[in-house]
């Protein structure tokens, strides 16, 4: 039997749906307070939902009864500075608990990390799986939590765990709605005035799910894979989204000093309202950085061809307009 952790999240839900469409009956973990995603509601008879937080080792033990494969998509994500340490602690400890139990029970795992844990390449070079984040200089809580969680998986692999790691770029898809990466589309729809000079990778959520399933079905172990369809300049992305939505494209380049003011302002508003800031320091600075990711390793490993980002953009925009 297959277990999906984090199945109430954007990627986890799409992965669970893909597994069901392939004829599997699956088990999914959720928190007691979590709501079952709309895209999974038609498949209630195919899913065994269990309340199990990764921090609760006892509940996790029960959830793993009879399981032979685990897709780990669970993660605590927050831009709030106050959540930095709890986020790191929760993601790392939760992953360690799952790794230890999978190792004890000889369960194969596909672990979802992020390109936030991959690090940087030299100027003009593409980022590959051989690049690693420098934990001594990194300050972003999410990146640190992903790096240290990934290190727990590597520890498990050294101890005999059968596992592979995926590092997706920015995951997009209609089921994100207006949260997460969906905020990009919603912000453009509402009238984004500025663009930045940065470049980043994008990938369709269904492609990430398909890559994870394909990797699970191989005998590959002890490897990490960047999951990326295309590298896009933010300017190009914003223009394409604006064109699909029928709204004016952003015309003004946001200089680094403007982004610096923007994140500081967002941080102040967040401190006053108690809500997560719309923009944090790391995101603001990353928006002006050119980061291009090499996807050749995953394509060679499973013979995968990615869906064009333009097709996903059209699908997301159609859902927003609908």
Automatic annotation (TrEMBL):
Signal peptide: none
InterPro entries linked to this entry: Epimerase_deHydtase, NAD(P)-bd_dom_sf, NAD(P)-dependent_oxidoreduct
SUPFAM superfamilies: NAD(P)-binding Rossmann-fold domains
Chain ranges of the NAD-dependent epimerase/dehydratase domain: 2-225
Protein name: SDR family NAD(P)-dependent oxidoreductase
Organism field: Mucilaginibacter rigui
């Amino acid at each position: 039997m297959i277990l999906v952790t984090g199945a109430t999240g954007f990627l986890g839900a799409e992965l669970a749906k893909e597994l069901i469409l392939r004829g599997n009956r699956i088990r999914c973990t959720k928190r007691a307070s979590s709501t079952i995603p709309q895209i999974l509601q038609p498949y209630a008879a195919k899913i065994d939902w269990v309340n199990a937080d990764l921090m609760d080792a006892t509940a996790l033990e029960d959830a793993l009864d009879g399981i032979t494969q685990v897709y780990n998509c669970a993660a605590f994500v927050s831009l709030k500075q106050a959540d930095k340490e709890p986020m790191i602690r929760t993601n790392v400890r939760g992953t360690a608990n799952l790794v230890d139990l999978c190792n004890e029970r000889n369960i194969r795992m596909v672990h979802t990390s992020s390109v936030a844990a991959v690090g940087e390449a030299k100027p003009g070079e593409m980022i590959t799986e051989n690049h690693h984040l420098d934990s001594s200089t990194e300050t972003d809580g999410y990146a640190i939590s992903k790096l240290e969680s990934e290190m727990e998986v590597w520890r498990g692999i050294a101890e005999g765990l059968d596992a592979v790691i995926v590092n997706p770029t920015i995951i997009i898809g209609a089921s994100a709605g207006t949260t997460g990466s969906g905020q990009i589309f919603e912000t453009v729809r509402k009238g984004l005035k500025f663009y930045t000079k940065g470049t980043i990778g994008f990938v369709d959520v269904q492609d990430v799910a398909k890559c994870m399933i394909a990797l699970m079905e191989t005998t590959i172990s002890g490897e990490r894979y960047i999951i990326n369809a295309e590298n896009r300049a933010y300017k190009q992305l914003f223009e394409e989204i604006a064109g699909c939505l029928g709204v004016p494209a952003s015309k003004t380049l946001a200089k680094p000093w403007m982004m610096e003011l923007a994140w500081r302002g967002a941080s102040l508003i967040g401190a006053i309202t108690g809500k997560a800031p719309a923009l944090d320091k790391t995101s603001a600075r990353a928006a002006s950085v050119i980061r291009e990711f090499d996807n050749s390793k995953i394509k060679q490993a499973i013979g995968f061809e990615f869906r064009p980002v333009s097709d996903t953009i059209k699908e997301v925009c159609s859902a927003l307009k609908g």
